Amino acid sequence: MIWHKCIQFYFHLPIFVRLLLSVCFIMLFFGLFIHLIEPTHFPTLFDGIWWAFVTGSTVGYGDYVPLSALGKTVGIFLILAGGGLVTFYMATISASTIKHEKDLSEGKVAFKGSRHIIIIGWNERTRQLIDMVKDSSLHQDIVLVDHTLKNISYQDHHIHFIQGNPTADNILQKAKIKDATHIIITSDPSMKENEADRQTILNIISARGNNPDIAIVAEILTEIQRKNAERAGANVIVRSNNFMSSLFFQTIFQASNKATDIIAKTLEQQQFCTIPIDEKLTNQTFQTGAKEFLNNNKWLIGIFRNEEIIINPGFEFILKENDHLIYLRPF
Description:
The protein is an alpha/beta fold. The protein folds into three domains: 2-105, Orthogonal Bundle (Helix Hairpins); 117-242, NAD(P)-binding Rossmann-like Domain (Rossmann fold), CATH 3.40.50.720; 269-330, Regulator of K+ conductance, C-terminal domain (Alpha-Beta Plaits, 2-Layer Sandwich). The protein is built from twelve helices and ten strands. Helix 2 crosses helix 3 (45-56) and helix 2 runs antiparallel to helix 4. The protein is elongated, with a radius of gyration of 32 Å. The N and C termini lie far apart (67 Å). The relative contact order is 0.06. The model has no long low-confidence stretch (mean pLDDT 84).
């Protein structure tokens, strides 16, 4: 009964573990055997095991060699049995490594970390966001979930890719949503706006159902779906169309198209950032803070206070202790 359970346990192990155990067992067996039949030339059990590993792996240092006919016969069997098994073991490890890398690029491997960010959807905005995180000093793990991509290079993008429908529980569990801090849901550019927003809301519901505490940032294209996204559980709604519509209006109807073009190009080269207020700026005016930021090649544009964003509050506005400052800096 015990042997039967041991055999069952052995065959339930991964193949490379089984091969490693088999190699070790054969080397131990032949090392013990050569030590027993030629104790003069192999005075310790370790000497016999060393000879078995060196001979079985076909390295052949020659520091220990059997001299008797029986010992040489044992060596022949060791080369036939151990050499082939060691070669097969190395080939299996190589094949497993290549397969694992292929599965990683095709999004088949579950994420193992925690405190990571999940991004839903692969598009230009996603790529830029990943580049920003990679160029920063945050060292934040990113898991990308997308159903349209067939594969993505881990070496090139330094992200963990999960291929599949982001509304499916098993896909979100592979992304370890329960251990993630944030999930960013981008709008699908291949869909019409209403369809894309409905899909985004479904993604929000799925994410909130799998992790009630996760912070959800969602991109919504139409104003009519904004409330629904909030009801579904999104913490932050990003309306990318608002800025673009305003920019288009300025370009078409204002007197100076050149000025609008300069603004658009300038904003393309800037990055929005937030930072807790420095102690020396507490109880100072917004104007003082703005000058301080300009001296460091940054443009202070607003503050985040008590869950409220205040943009361009006025020069006499007083900064308080728990404020977070919103600014632009060059990429």
